[in-house]
Design goal:
The complex is a heterotrimer. Chain A has helices at about 1-20, 20-25, 30-55, 60-90. By secondary structure, chain A is an all-alpha fold. In chain A, helix 1 (about 1-20) packs antiparallel against helix 3 and helix 3 runs antiparallel to helix 4 (about 60-90). The termini of chain B are far apart. Chain B is mostly helical. The longest helix of chain B is centred in the first third of the chain and has 47 residues, at about 10-55. Chain B is about 85% helix and about 0% strand. Chain C folds into 3 domains: about 1-45 and about 120-225, no CATH class; about 55-110 and about 230-325, no CATH class; about 365-495, no CATH class. In chain C, about 60% of the residues lie in helices and about 5% in strands. In chain C, strands 1, 2, 3, 4, 5, 6, 7 and 8 form an 8-stranded antiparallel β-sheet that branches. In chain C, strand 7 and strand 8 form a beta hairpin. In chain C, helix 1 crosses helix 5 (about 135-165). The chains are: A mainly alpha, B mainly alpha, C alpha+beta. At the A-C interface, helix 1 and helix 4 of A face helix 6 and helix 12 of C. Chain C: Keywords: Membrane, Transmembrane, Transmembrane helix. Chain C: Pfam families: PepSY_TM. Chain C: This is Membrane protein. Chain C: InterPro entries: PepSY-ass_TM.
C-alpha cells in the first residue's frame, strides 16, 4: 500500500512539473495562484515519497524511491501525451 | 573570371571535395584525440590502483577491490574530461597533468 | 565543421553508443531476464513442484548429500543450494562451463524430480555477463562495453543537460517519426538515469580486474584460498582438480546448518560447498542489499567446527553493496519487478538509440555497405533476439522431455533462430528491402510470441489451477511482447502503404 502512495506522490509531482512548462500552459492555461501551488507540490511530493520509502524499508528505500519515481514519470508522460493529443484535435 | 569561363564545372566541385576532405580530417583528429584521452585515462586508472597496492600492500584484497571500483568510476569520467574539454583546448593537458601527478605520487611513495 | 562541445559529445555519443549498443542491447535484455532467472528455470522445468514449505527436512538433506557425493564421483564439482522463498527446492548443482545445472530434490522427502534437462534462466545469466564466451574473453568484452556505456551516458548527459529539466517527461508519440523515437530515447534515458548509471557501474566494477592491467599482487591473490560468491559458487577458473573432489559421505547436514545460522546470526543459510575434507556453509544473501560472503567451515569427516569468516568493515561493506546492488537477489518481489521494468526501459533506451542512429543517416548514407550492415545487424538485435528467446521457450516445450543432450538442443534452437534473423536482416538490407524485412520479422515475432501460450497449453506439461503463477506471468509477458511486435508491424505496414 505504501508503494502505491509513493507512486501516486511521484505521479502528482511529475504532473505538476509538466503543468508548469510553458508548452503545456499553452494548451491548458494555468492561473497564477495555481502556479504557486504546483511549484510547491512539485517539491513536496517527492520529499514525502522519500519519507514513505525510508519508512517502509530504510535500507532499500532509495531503490524503491527511484524505481517507483521512474515508473510514475513514464506513466504521466504517456498520459500527458494522450491528453495533449486529444486536446489538440478538439475544434 | 576568365578561369570561371574556362572551367565552369570545377569551381563548385572543388569546395565540396575540400569540405569532404576537411570533414574526414576532422573525424581522424577526433579519433586520435579520443584514443589519446583513452590511453591517458587508462593509465590514470592503473596508477590509482597501483597507489593502493603500494600504500596498503599486496595482501589487502578488499582495499585493492575498492581502489578498482574507484578506478572504474574514474575511467569514463577522465575520458570524458580529456575528450570533451578539448573544445577549449585544455582537456588532454589536464589529463596528462593528472596522470603525471598520480604517477609521481606513486614514485615518491616509500 | 563546427567545433562545439555539443558537437563533439554528439559524435562520441552516436558512434560509441551505436557500436557498443549493438551488443549492450543484448546484454541488457538478457540481464533483465536474469532478474527472474530462478522463475524462468521453474517455468522451463514444469515437472518440479513448488508448493512445498521452504524448510528442508533431515531426510531431504541426507538425500541431497548422497546425490552430491554421487555427482562428485562423476568428477563434477557439485554443491547444494537450500530452499528459499523464490526457489523452494533443493538443488545439487555443478558448473558446466556456462550454467549451473543438476538434479532437483523435494525439500520434504528428498525424492528427485524427473525434471527435464534445461539451461533455464541460467542461460540468460551466462549470456548477460559472459556472452557465452567464458569468464575470460566474454567477461572482459562485457566489462569493456560497460565502460563504453558509462562514456555514452556521460556524453548523453552533456548533450541533453540544458533541456533535461524542462523536458523531463516530454513524450510525443503522435509526432513525426524521428521526434517520437527521440522522445522515447530521452524520456527513458532521463527517468531511468539513476538506475542506468547504478547498474552499469556496479556491473563494470564486478569484473573491473579483467580490464585493468595485471598487478604484481595477482599471484598472491590466486594463491589465497578462494572464497566463492554465493550464487556463483565455485569461482570459475578456480575449480579444484578432479582428484580432490571426492571425499567421505558428510555427516548429517541439519545440525551443521543450525550451528552455522547460530554463529552467523543468520535467518537462513543458502549454499553448501564441499571440498575433500571440509564443508562450507554460506548465509543467505536475499535479506539485505549487501551480498555477503560470510561462511562457516566444518570438518567433512566428523562435522566439527573449524572456522568462520564473518567480514566486517567499511571497505568490505562497500564491495558487498556494489555486488548486492547489481546481483539484485532481493526477497522483495516489488523490488525485483522494479529492477525488471527498469531493465526493460533501459533496453528500450538502447534500442531506440540504435533506430535513431540509422534514421539520422539513412538519407545521406543509405546506399553505403556499412550502413546496410549496420541496419541488418540492428534488425538481428532488436527483432532477432526476442525471436530467439521465444524460440528457446518453444523448444523447451516441444522437444521430448527425456531427449539426450536436450539442453544443448534448446540452446542450438536459440542461436539458429538468431543467426537466421540476422542473416535475413543483412540480406534484405543489402537488397535495399530493409523496411519489408522489419515488417516480416516483426510479424514472425508476433506469431511466435503469441503462439507460445498456445503451445504451453497444448503440451499439457503442467496444471493451470494449482501453483501456476509462474506460468501465467511468463505467458502474459510473452503475449505482451507479441502484441507490441504486432502493433509495430502494423504501423510499419500502414506507413509503407
Amino acid at each position: 500500500m505504501i508503494s502505491l502512495y509513493v507512486f501516486v506522490a511521484w505521479a502528482c509531482a511529475f504532473w505538476a512539473h509538466e503543468r508548469l512548462q510553458p508548452r503545456t500552459c499553452k494548451l491548458f492555461p494555468l492561473a497564477q495562484s495555481r502556479r504557486k501551488a504546483y511549484q510547491l507540490l512539485r517539491f513536496c511530493w517527492p520529499v514525502l515519497a522519500l519519507f514513505l520509502c525510508l519508512y517502509r524499508d530504510f535500507e532499500k528505500g532509495l531503490l524503491y524511491w527511484f524505481g517507483l519515481g521512474a515508473l510514475a514519470g513514464l506513466a504521466v508522460s504517456v498520459l500527458m501525451a494522450i491528453l495533449k493529443h486529444t486536446q489538440s484535435r478538439l475544434p | 573570371m576568365p578561369d570561371a569561363v574556362r572551367k565552369p564545372v570545377s569551381r563548385p566541385a572543388a569546395p565540396a571535395a575540400r569540405r569532404r576532405i576537411e570533414k574526414r580530417h576532422a573525424v581522424y583528429k577526433r579519433m586520435a584525440q579520443l584514443a589519446t584521452a583513452a590511453v591517458l585515462a587508462y593509465l590514470s586508472a592503473h596508477f590509482i590502483v597501483m597507489h593502493t597496492v603500494l600504500r596498503d600492500g599486496v595482501e589487502n584484497r578488499v582495499a585493492i577491490t575498492v581502489a578498482e571500483a574507484v578506478a572504474t568510476a574514474a575511467l569514463p569520467l577522465l575520458l570524458l574530461l580529456g575528450y570533451g574539454a578539448r573544445t577549449h583546448g585544455w582537456g588532454l593537458w589536464i589529463l596528462l597533468a593528472l596522470c603525471g601527478l598520480i604517477a609521481a605520487c606513486n614514485l615518491i611513495m616509500p | 565543421m563546427r567545433d562545439t562541445f555539443r558537437v563533439h559529445m554528439g559524435w562520441l555519443h552516436s558512434w560509441v553508443g551505436f557500436l557498443a549498443g549493438l551488443v549492450l542491447t543484448c546484454v541488457f535484455a538478457t540481464g533483465t531476464l536474469s532478474v527472474f532467472d530462478k522463475e524462468i528455470t521453474q517455468w522451463m522445468q514444469p515437472e518440479v513442484s513448488l508448493d512445498k514449505p521452504p524448510a528442508p527436512t533431515a531426510v531431504a538433506l541426507q538425500r541431497a548429500a548422497e546425490t552430491m557425493v554421487t555427482e562428485q564421483e562423476k568428477d563434477l564439482f557439485a554443491f547444494i543450494t537450500l530452499p528459499s522463498r523464490r526457489d523452494p527446492v533443493i538443488r545439487v548443482l555443478h558448473y558446466d562451463g556456462h550454467e549451473f545445472i543438476g538434479p532437483v530434490l523435494d525439500p520434504v522427502d528428498g525424492h528427485r524430480f524427473p525434471a527435464r534437462q534445461t539451461a533455464g534462466g541460467q542461460f540468460f545469466f551466462d549470456f548477460h555477463y559472459a556472452l557465452r564466451n567464458g569468464p575470460v574473453l566474454g567477461c572482459t568484452i562485457v566489462t569493456l562495453l560497460g565502460v563504453c556505456l558509462l562514456l555514452t551516458v556521460g556524453s548523453g548527459i552533456a548533450i541533453q543537460i540544458k533541456a533535461m529539466w524542462p523536458d523531463l517527461i516530454l513524450f510525443r508519440p503522435f509526432g513525426a517519426r524521428p521526434r517520437a523515437w527521440l522522445d522515447a530515447h530521452l524520456v527513458t534515458g532521463v527517468l531511468f538515469l539513476p538506475f542506468l548509471i547504478m547498474i552499469t557501474y556496479t556491473g563494470t566494477v564486478i569484473r573491473a580486474r579483467d580490464i585493468l592491467p595485471p598487478h604484481p599482487f595477482l599471484p598472491a591473490q590466486q594463491a589465497a584460498v578462494p572464497v566463492p560468491a554465493p550464487a556463483t559458487p565455485p569461482a570459475k577458473g578456480n575449480t579444484p582438480a578432479p582428484t580432490s573432489r571426492t571425499g567421505p559421505m558428510p555427516p548429517p547436514l541439519g545440525p551443521l546448518i543450525s550451528r552455522a545460522q547460530e554463529i552467523m546470526h543468520a535467518e537462513r543459510c543458502e549454499l553448501i560447498i564441499f571440498s575433500k575434507d571440509q564443508i562450507r556453509i554460506f548465509r543467505n544473501d536475499d535479506a539485505s542489499l549487501f551480498l555477503t560472503r560470510d561462511l562457516v567451515t566444518f570438518s567433512r569427516t566428523d562435522g566439527h567446527f573449524i572456522s568462520s569468516l564473518i567480514q566486517k568493515g567499511a571497505a568490505v561493506r562497500t564491495v558487498e553493496l556494489l555486488h548486492g546492488l547489481h546481483y539484485a537477489r532481493f526477497s522483495s518481489p516489488l523490488l525485483s519487478w522494479l529492477y525488471f521494468l527498469s531493465g526493460m526501459a533501459c533496453t528500450v533506451l538502447m534500442g531506440s538509440g540504435l533506430v535513431l542512429f540509422l534514421m539520422k543517416r539513412r538519407k545521406t548514407s543509405g546506399q553505403m555497405i556499412l550502413f546496410q550492415t549496420a541496419e541488418g545487424l540492428t534488425i538481428g538485435v532488436l527483432v532477432g533476439l526476442p525471436l530467439a528467446i521465444a524460440g528457446l521457450l518453444w523448444a523447451n516445450r516441444l522437444l521430448p522431455a527425456h531427449m539426450p543432450d536436450r539442453m544443448h538442443a534448446e540452446i542450438q534452437v536459440f542461436f539458429a533462430l538468431w543467426m537466421l534473423s540476422a542473416l535475413h536482416g543483412l540480406v534484405c538490407a543489402f537488397k535495399n528491402t530493409a523496411s519489408s524485412c522489419w515488417r516480416t520479422q516483426l510479424t514472425g515475432l508476433a506469431f511466435v510470441a503469441l503462439g507460445l501460450p498456445v503451445v504451453d497449453v497444448l503440451t499439457h506439461s503442467h496444471g493451470w489451477r494449482h501453483d501456476a503463477t509462474r506460468y501465467y506471468t511468463l505467458d502474459a509477458l510473452i503475449i505482451l511482447m507479441g502484441l507490441v511486435a504486432l502493433i509495430i508491424a502494423r504501423k510499419l505496414h500502414r506507413h509503407a502503404s
